[in-house]
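Below is how a single chain appears once it has passed through the pipeline. First comes the sequence as given, then the structure the pipeline wrote out for it. We keep one example in the README because the format questions we get most often are answered faster by looking than by reading.
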Amino acid sequence: MSTARYPALPSRMSMITFKTRLKGAQKGHSLLKRKADALVMKYRSMMLELRKAKLEVVGEMRDSHFAVTNANFVAGDISFAVQESLKIPPFKTYVHVDNIAGVSIPTLRSRDVDTDEMNQIVSGLGKGGEQIKAARVKFHKTTAILVRIAALQTTWTTLDIAIKVTNRRVNALEKVVIPKVENTLAYITSELDEQEREEFFRLKMVQKKKKQAVAAKIAAEAKAAKLAAQRGEASPAEVAAARRAAAQRHADPVAAADEEEDMVV
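Resulting structure:
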């Protein structure tokens, strides 16, 4: 038997306590295993979404810069329009906390901005207004993709840490806690069985000693009665009564010994 066990006294109460602990550890192991599986599934789906978003952002950034180049070619210097547009928040995000299998994951989400005020900036431009609008729309889309990549990257990293922690707990329960509790239960069971065998052996020895004592007393009484009869000190009736009592004790010596002990007490 393995010596890796918890310190415990071999008693029925300890056995009940460790059986309860074993049941709780097994249930916790099952729940953590399911949690780890759910986190792994979400982790893989996030990884696929992140890969898709990173591949998508390359083309969007290329198109955005091409739109800015086109606007500069048509409208000339657009720095003034860009500076005016910076007075109004072009893009807004907020933090949202998602719960995935008991793990809190902060994510970023974009919020729509009223485009009427944005359109007023370039609505008065007679030349290059549409190109500037197109460039703004392209960069707005690119920014949304970048925000989504940041949110997916944060979720991916958080899930990776949560999976490692959960797997460590699962391995600790599976490799350390549950085997130690099982070894402790096996130790308590073996000790209780040994105590029962010792108790049974003790009772058998007590009965044997009682039988031997009763047999010796019966033999002594019979010998004394025989000597008394030979000397003529006892009547035949007393000798017969002594013989009947000896025969009764011989039939059930343990009960006779118990009666004698009660009489002595």
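The chain has a mean pLDDT of 77.

See the next section for the split statistics.
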